[in-house]
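Hi everyone, sorry if this is the wrong subforum. Our group has a chain we'd like a structural model of before ordering constructs, and none of us has done structure prediction before. Sequence below.
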Amino acid sequence: MHHVAHRPATRFALLYVGGDGCWEVLSKEPMLRSRVFRHLPFSPLAPAKVPALMRRYHPIYTEASDELLHEVDASYGHDTMRDWAVFTHTAAALCAEQNLTTVDEAVIHNTYTLLGGGLRD
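Answer:
Right subforum, don't worry. Here is the predicted structure as tokens:
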């Protein structure tokens, strides 16, 4: 990967992603630091913003109530897009199987079941 990224004809973005301490490690290495265009820290979503964001994220949430989306966030999403992505992948497949355009309580319950009980710590 290193050699491909340095060829002049290469046209893709290379994304370094990591948890706590990642920036400190990258910034200590001049060859890595010189390749970082922008350092963007991520933080959990504000719970009040979750319904609007999820409606823009995937069509299965467009008609879902705020209460239902808050319940999914509290039980599974935990204000984290990574968790929402996992949930959405499974819920969207269930909606497609049932020809539904939006999630409902049954889809959410079945998604939790498929994801191992749903409640995440």
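For your construct planning: Residues 32 and 42 are 20 Å apart (CA to CA). Helices lie at 2-5, 22-28, 30-33, 50-57, 66-77, 81-97, 105-114.
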